[in-house]
Each structure stands twice: as C-alpha cells, then as structure tokens.
Design a protein that fits this description.
seven-stranded mixed sheet; elongated; alpha/beta; 550 residues
C-alpha cells in the first residue's frame, strides 16, 4: 500500500460525519470523491435491473471518528468519560474505481464484438454514472472510513496505467469489456484489487465469462493454469459478481489491513512473545510495527509520583465515583485499587501521547508494576479498550498483530485471553482485562475483584450475554499461520481462574482444535468476522485455517 499524507482529526457521530464538510474528505484535504462511515445497514443486490437497494436499515449509535496516520493525536489526552461515544480511529481506505470498456466497430460478415453491454461511449458514460451512484450508496453504509475516488473509464492499457499512478490503496475494477492486456494494466500485480463483474445488476460484462484461473491465483495448485496467473497475486476470492455486500466486507478487511500495517504501539517494560521470542522482530519486519519500548527504569519514577499527586488523585477519585455508580457495576475489592487504576489509565495515555501511538501494551503486569502503582493494570487496560484505544496485557507480540487487525475490522473492542483445552465442543476463555463495551455501545455487567494470581488490585469480571456469537483468532506462534474460530457464549462461570471468563461452544469441527492446543493467547471480538479475517490474512501473506466453516 502507498503511504498517505497526514490526516487531521474529526469528532462526530457516524451520521453527522457523512453530512458534514469536515468528514473524511475534508480531513485528508480532498474533494470531489465519495466518502463514508455510517451505520450497519445492508446493501442488497436486486436480482435484475441496474440499481442497488439499501435494505435492513438500522441506526448505529454515535462514535467519535478520528483519523490517525501520524497526525495530531491530542485526542488521546482526553479524560475518562463513559458517555463519550466509542472511538473509531484509523486512516481512511482510499479506493480507485476503474471501468474497462471497448468500442468495437461493425465489420461485414465476421464477428466484431465481444459479449457485454458496455461497447459504446454512450453506454460507458451511463455505466460510470451507475457506478458512481452505487458507490455513493455503498459509502453511506460502510461503518469504517472509506473514500471512493472519482470513477475513471479506460479502454487502452496506457489509460489504465495512467490511472494507476494515482494516490489510492486498492483499485475496484469493473471489467465490462476489453482485452486481457487491458485487464492486466488495470490490476496491480501485488493483488491490491477487487474485481466487480455484472451478471444481472446492470449491463452484463464480458469478463463475467472470461475471468478464470488463467488470470487469477487460486489456493488449489491442481486447479491453477500451467503458467503463473496473469494478474499476479489477484485471487479468485477478489472477484465479486453483482453483490455489493460482498464488496463491502472485502473493503472492511482491506481497511483492517491498512491500519494494522505500520502500527505504532508503546510497550511498557519491553516487547516479548509467548513461547516465541522472535515475535517482536516478526512484528517489526513483516508487519512494519513501530514498537516503542519504555523501560521500567524510566517509568517507575513517574508511576510512583503519579499515585502521590494530589491533582491526579482527585481526578481519579471523581472517575471512580462515576464508574462505580454505573448500572450493573459491583465492587468486591478495595476502592483505593480502583482509584489507582484510574491514575494508571491517565499515565498510560500520557505515554501513548508522548510517543504518538494509539496502542499500548505492558509486560510484567502481574508483578513488577504492582508495588509502583499500588494496584494492578487489569482494570486500567479494560478502561482504555472501552473508550476505543488498543491496550493489551503481557506484551505478547504473537497475538497483538491479530488484535490490532481484528479491532480495525470489527470497529469494536477486542479481548486478549488465555485459551484452554477443547472438550465436548467447549473452550473456556479467561483473562483479567476484558473490556465491558464489547459491542462498542453498551457496558456489560461487571464485578471488580482482585487480580486472581496475586489476590491484589482491581480486575474486571465481565459477563457476556448468553448466546453471544464471537470470533477468535489463534496464531500459531510466529509460523505465519493463523487459526480462525467462531462460537457462542454458554456461560460466565466463576472458576478459580482469571476473572473475566466465558465457556464458549465452538461452531464447526471443534475437534480440529485439539491439534491447536498450545497454551497460547487468543483474541476475541463480538460477531462473525471470519470471512474478513481470512481475506485479510491472504493479503498479509499468512496461512489461514478456519475450523468453523470447514
């Protein structure tokens, strides 16, 4: 992907963002393109005709929209406020639509045109107008920042190559007509493309017939052609026929990839990897992470001073009072632990702001930090995730890349947790740092207890609704292979294990997980996002195993 200019800040509701001139286009200094970040309505393709219709409209509560590509991160310094909408931050995905067409001339007594209904200048102009309207509708339904640049029509490879010199992340190619050479000129060989062909949604495209594994990569080497695919890394899964819902989830995956790559994250203590000491190196080299390590020798004086600072204490006392008065909030540890957790929240965000990083992780959270802060970091990380930041315990860079990707794909908090040995289709997921606002809107019931292993500090036991569908990512150490899992919460027990704990019934062939048992961390999010993650992993050159959809 290409580096983009710095973006500025825009804080609005999802819907006012669309209506305001200070939305994504203004934030990145652009005009004349289609932008969007709205609710979770669906785009439904009609079985015939040229229009796409919006169906199942459902309003989403407001979020705070921030674009962060190295620009001003002053929003990190904002104080705790449970009423503030969830923070949705990330660089907008920039998409360049390209219409391929041809204008063959009649010839006597011979075949002179291909399949398809876009074979004149007039029909190409009509198709550009149709595409523009469809993308405007699609942008209005996207729940992540996306910008569609003005659609361009091309009928020669030279025209296509000129368009491809622009500033975008991916191309959305409409191959209505034209040669294979023209198609190759439209599609980057790195695979940063989606191909949208028409069957019934408008004029039928020639390439609805002609697309094949001669041009497209496939996961099955026996189905591949004898020559390398002519479109490089562009895959059969990059092709969509008629249905813009299929485009939307692919764009959601691309948005996640864009904002996971090159992530900046503060690592307090140091950067580590559970059972994989090379994890920070892999994160830096493969995913281009900027890991900003802060040693405890530097942090300790600030932590000890913070918990003695009268102004910080007063602010934390006020926040504690508000937090404990929230519905379904129960305290079963000493209140000073909660106050100090809020002081840590304030200080950790200072570390993030000073290092221009919207993500944070901490090593030695189960020991080293306790005598300095006179609490644990468990509740602190939960609070940070609830407002939309990324905050992880244990500084485990085996799982953190998956967490950052999942957070951006879902637009919801993610929960890093321990896994257990699967049995009878059930696994237990447990850790002491669960967010409460797992759907990005409401706060789930919580009991604040001590951290289990130390019987000290403040740790949330969050109860997830029974039946809630969840998605998991389970990386196999640093081997470049991720496992995807989907399940439903069956219970919120109170075993003598990490405080936030759920028994989850696995969908699909749960026995496949027996061979994946490795005492590793998993990452959880509400909802089903296995399609998006699987698609994203291919773009990240990772191997993907989906045990729930086999």
């Amino acid at each position: 992907m290409k580096e983009k200019r710095s973006d500025s800040v825009s804080k609005q509701s999802r819907r006012s963002f669309l209506k305001s001139s200070t939305g994504v286009a203004a934030a990145v200094g652009l005009a004349g393109s289609t932008t969007g970040c709205a609710g979770s309505e669906k785009i439904a393709a009609e079985s015939s005709g040229t229009k796409q219709v919006v169906a199942a409209a459902a309003a989403k509560p407001a979020v705070t929209l921030v674009s962060s590509s190295g620009g001003d991160l002053g929003w990190i310094k904002q104080g705790w406020d449970p009423q503030r909408p969830f923070l949705l931050w990330g660089r907008p995905l920039r998409v360049q639509p390209i219409l391929m067409y041809a204008t063959p001339q009649p010839q006597k007594q011979t075949s002179w045109k291909s399949w398809g209904g876009v074979l004149t200048e007039e029909s190409a102009t009509e198709e550009i107008a149709r595409i523009t309207e469809e993308l405007r509708a699609l942008a209005s339904q996207a729940e992540f920042p996306v910008e569609f640049l003005p659609a361009q029509k091309v009928k020669t490879p030279e025209e296509a190559e000129s368009v491809r010199k622009g500033d975008y992340d991916i191309v959305l190619v409409y191959p209505a007509a034209g040669s294979g050479r023209l198609l190759a000129a439209c599609v980057p060989t790195d695979g940063n493309a989606i191909l949208f062909a028409r069957h019934r949604s408008g004029p039928t495209y020639y390439w609805y017939e002609a697309l094949s594994v001669v041009y497209l990569a496939t996961d099955d080497p026996e189905k591949a052609g004898s020559e390398p695919p002519r479109l490089g890394k562009t895959h059969v899964d990059d092709v969509v026929i008629d249905d813009y819902r299929e485009v939307l989830w692919r764009l959601r995956a691309w948005y996640g990839v864009k904002n996971m790559m090159g992530a900046r994250i503060v690592a307090l203590g140091s950067a580590e990897g559970k059972y994989a000491g090379d994890a920070p190196k892999i994160a830096r080299e493969k995913f281009k992470f900027e890991i900003l390590e802060i040693g405890y020798d530097i942090a300790e004086p600030r932590i000890r001073a913070a918990v003695k600072d009268p102004k910080r204490i007063a602010r934390a006392e006020k926040w504690t009072e508000t937090y404990l008065s929230m519905p379904d909030t129960h305290l079963k540890t000493d209140r000073p632990f909660v106050v100090n957790a809020f002081i840590l929240y304030d200080l950790f965000k200072e570390f993030m702001y000073e290092n221009n990083a919207p993500a944070f992780t901490i090593r030695s959270c189960m020991g080293t930090i306790m005598p300095m802060s006179e609490t644990t970091a468990c509740l602190t990380l939960s609070l940070m995730n609830d407002e939309g930041l990324l905050a992880f315990c244990e500084s485990d860079f085996v799982i953190i890349p998956a967490g950052i990707l999942l957070r951006h794909i879902t637009g919801k908090p993610v929960f890093l947790h321990n896994s257990t040995f699967p049995h009878q289709g059930v696994v237990t997921c447990a850790h002491c740092t669960s967010p409460r606002r797992m759907d990005s809107v409401k706060y789930e019931p919580v009991t604040i207890l001590t951290h289990l292993e130390s019987e000290y500090g403040a740790a949330p036991k969050v109860d997830i609704p029974i039946g809630q569908e969840v998605t998991f990512i389970d990386p196999e150490y640093t081997k470049g292979r991720w496992v995807g899992i989907r399940g439903n919460v069956e219970g919120n027990p109170f075993y003598p294990i990490c405080r936030s704990q759920q028994d989850v019934r696995i969908q699909g062939k749960w026995r496949e997980l027996l061979n994946e048992a490795r005492d590793s961390h998993w990452m959880m999010a509400y909802g089903d996002y296995l399609k998006e993650i699987g698609y994203a992993t291919r773009k990240l050159d990772l191997r993907w195993e989906n045990v729930s959809d086999v």
